[in-house]
Design a protein that fits this description.
Blueprint lengths: L5 H14 E3 L6 E3 L3 H8 L2 E3 L5 E3 L3 H7 L5 E3 L6 E3 H12 L2 E3 L6 E3 L6 H4 L2
Antiparallel strand pairs: 1-2, 3-4, 5-6, 7-8
Amino acid sequence: KKDISVANFITHETHCSRNIEVCRYCSELIPKSEMKNHIESEHVKVTCKCRMKIEKCLLKDHEASACPLRPALCQYCDIQLPFNKLQDHETFCGARTEPCPGCGLNIMVKDLKEHPRVCG
C-alpha cells in the first residue's frame, strides 16, 4: 500500500506476499508472524464496566465517549457522576435556589447565569 519503484516492485511484492497479511478485522497490514498476537491483543472481546462486550481495541473510545458509566461533571456543582445519572442529577441540582447577591431574591441555580440581565 505504498509507492514502490518499478525496479524494486517484483521483489517487494514477493516479500510482502510472503511476510505480510491484512487483518480481517481492521484491515491493518501485520507481519504474518505477529497476526495471532495482534488478533488476541486487539480484537479479543472484553467486557466494559457497563457490561457491554466490545473489541479491546475499541474499548478506550467507548469508555471516553459512549459508555453510559463514563464520568461526567454536573454543570451546576461540578460533582463527578456516571453519565447515565447526569440528566436526573442536573434537573434536581439546577432546581436548587440561591440568593442573588444583587437583588437578594432566591434564584434557581440553572437560571443564575441569565439572572443578571433582569436583575434590578
